[in-house]
Each structure stands twice: as structure tokens, then as C-alpha cells.
Design goal:
The chain is α/β, with parallel strands linked by helices and 276 residues long. It has two domains: 2-172, HUPs (Rossmann fold); 185-275, Pantoate-beta-alanine ligase, C-terminal domain (Pantoate--beta-alanine Ligase, Chain: A,domain 2, 2-Layer Sandwich). It has ten helices and nine strands. The strands form two sheets. A six-stranded parallel sheet has the order 1-4-3-2-5-6, sandwiched between helices. It is globular. The relative contact order is 0.13. Pantoate binds at residues 28-30, 58, 61, 127, 130-131, 149, 152.
Length: 276
């Protein structure tokens, strides 16, 4: 595996790949890699001649310096993980090179003022601003994202439709632990007790969803979701609501919806979405 830290070096390799007509799959990450990332890499390796993973903790998508500084970092492990998963290039550029004094922020216009966007103002602006940099440097054929960050996925889908028409976005189902919770870099920050509590919250949430009639409409399901929320021992809910799979609206029946949530266990913010 090649570990490349600067853009010009990366582009020499990419040019050589393009001359050989290799297809390139790209997996953007912020490190603290886990089996969820592993699924994206696996799919990219199936679909392409070469797979590139970037590790870049993007300061522009964190709402506070504290959250940025507390984001899990695990460099040695990440390198081993990429080697074990047979990644071809690990791209790990510096913030100075990526942003190069460019202060311009791309404003996201889609799926606004709902779910995470409502609570993390500017977060998705930071996400698409950094992806714009990486997409234009790497110019891959395909790019891979997980369904766990479903709103992010929908926003990136729109962004790609608007600006990177020839790039194929491949979405991959959320990889879950045996107990049902999703793999996430933030899980590392949970204590044993918090992890157990989170697992039990997840199981109860799944049981709650199974108890609903499939013909129920999303609005009425959300009334029941509010009742369920108040019965739970969770420090803080940001949101816990059903939304339509396609446009994230409140329109339709729950058979075409997902339940989205963001909760806090201690200081750790956990998000997930569950298909009904
Ligand atoms: O999902 C993530 O890890 C990040 O938001 C991404 C897409 C790598 C952009 O920094």
C-alpha cells in the first residue's frame, strides 16, 4: 500500500492509473476506521481496479473546537486496517494543502433545517466543501458512502448530481454489531456501561418500530415516537422521528420511511437510522 501525503505525488500515480484506463474507487474517511469503512472498501475493491482511501479530519465540519479535538484518532490502527483491507493508496494530506488559504465555504442547499442540519449548523457546508476539494483532486470513477449518515448521503447525492455528474455514488448498507448498534468511530468514546445502555435503547427502538402497523402514516407514527421517547432513559434526544426514505419529508406511510435519531450518551453524540 502506498501512503501519500501530498497532492502532486498522488496525481502522478492517478495519471498513471488513468493512462492504463484503470477505474478508481474512492472511500473518503476521517480515520478511526472500523468494519463500516471496511464494507465500503470491500465494495470498491470489487468494483474497481484501484481503491483510494483518504483520511482527513475536516475541521470545517465540526461546530466546536472541542468536538474536533475529541474526535477519535488512531493512526497506527488505521494504517494496519488499510493494509489488511488491501487498499491501494492511503491519501493523508495536510489541512494547509487541501484548503490552501481558500476560505470559501460551499453552502449546502438541500435537506436543510431538519435532522442533523437543524442541530449542527454549517456541518454539511463543511462536508461538501471538503468533498469538493477531494473529488476535484482524485477524479475517481466511483465514490462510496454508508447509509448510517443518511442525511449526509442524500446531501452528497444532490451535490454530485449538480457538480460531478460523471461520478457514481455507491451507497452501502449500515454495518452493525451483533447486538444491532451501528459501527461508528464515536462508539470508541463510550464507557462499557454507556455501550450497554445504548444497546438496550437500540433493541427497544427496534421493538417499538416492529410494534407499529405498516399502514400507519408518518405523522401518526411520529406521535407514537414522541410517547416512546419520553419512556426512555436517555440524557438528551436531539431528534427521534420517522421521515420518508426518498425526500426526508413527513409524507407517506411508514412502510416507505426510516426512523432517524440523534441522542447523547454522556458527551457522545450517536446517530442512526432504521428502515421500517
Ligand atoms: O462521513 C465522514 O466521515 C465525513 O463526513 C466525510 C464524508 C469523510 C467528509 O469529511
Amino acid at each position: 500500500m502506498l501512503i501519500i501525503k501530498d497532492i502532486s505525488n498522488l496525481q502522478s500515480y492517478l495519471n498513471a492509473y488513468q493512462n492504463r484506463k484503470y477505474s478508481i474507487g474512492y472511500v473518503p474517511t476521517m480515520g478511526a476506521l472500523h468494519k463500516g469503512h471496511g464494507e465500503l472498501i470491500k465494495q470498491s475493491k470489487k468494483d474497481n481496479h484501484k481503491t483510494i482511501v483518504s483520511i482527513f479530519i475536516n475541521e470545517k465540519q465540526f461546530s466546536s473546537k472541542e468536538d474536533f479535538e475529541n474526535y477519535p484518532r488512531n493512526k497506527g490502527f488505521d494504517y494496519d486496517f488499510c493494509i489488511d483491507n488491501e487498499v491501494d493508496i492511503l491519501f493523508e494530506p495536510s489541512s494547509e494543502e487541501i484548503f490552501n488559504n481558500d476560505e470559501k465555504i460551499i453552502k449546502n442547499k438541500n435537506f436543510k433545517d431538519m435532522l442533523c442540519d437543524k442541530f449542527r449548523k454549517g456541518h454539511f457546508d463543511g462536508v461538501i466543501t471538503v468533498l469538493d476539494k477531494f473529488f476535484s483532486i482524485i477524479k475517481s470513477n466511483k465514490v462510496y458512502f454508508g447509509e448510517k449518515d443518511y442525511q449526509q448521503l442524500k446531501i452528497i447525492e444532490k451535490f454530485i448530481e449538480e457538480k460531478y455528474k460523471s461520478l457514481d455514488l455507491i451507497s452501502i448498507q449500515t454495518k452493525r454489531h451483533e447486538e444491532g448498534i451501528a459501527y461508528s468511530s464515536r462508539n470508541e468514546k463510550l464507557s462499557k456501561k454507556q455501550t450497554q445502555d445504548f444497546i438496550s435503547f437500540h433493541i427497544q427502538t427496534k421493538n417499538f418500530i416492529s410494534s407499529l402497523e405498516k399502514s400507519l402514516d408518518i405523522e401518526n407514527a411520529n406521535l407514537k415516537a414522541n410517547e416512546f421517547m419520553t419512556s426512555q432513559d436517555v440524557e438528551k434526544f436531539e431528534y427521534f422521528e420517522f421521515r420518508n426514505n426518498t425526500d426526508l419529508s413527513f409524507i407517506g406511510s411508514i412502510s416507505e420511511a426510516r426512523l432517524f435519531y440523534a441522542i447523547y450518551k454522556g458527551k457522545v453524540r450517536l446517530i442512526d437510522n432504521l428502515k421500517v
